[in-house]
Amino acid sequence: MANDHPGCNDPAKGKEEELNLDLIKSGLSSSLFSVNIVYLTALGSTNDLAKDLALRGAPEGTVVVTEEQTAGKGRRGRSWLAPSKTNLLFSILLRPALSPNRTFSLTMALALAALEAIEGETGLSCMIKWPNDLYVGRRKLGGILTEVSGKDNQVDWVVLGLGLNVNWCPEDEKGVSGFSATSIFAETQETFSRNELLVQILKQFESHHERLFSGGGDELYRKWNEHSLVLGKEVVIEAEQKRTTGKAIRIDENGALILEDGTGIMHVITHGDVSLRLFSPSS
Ligand code: BTN
Question: What pTM did the predictor assign?
Answer without folding.
Answer: 0.92
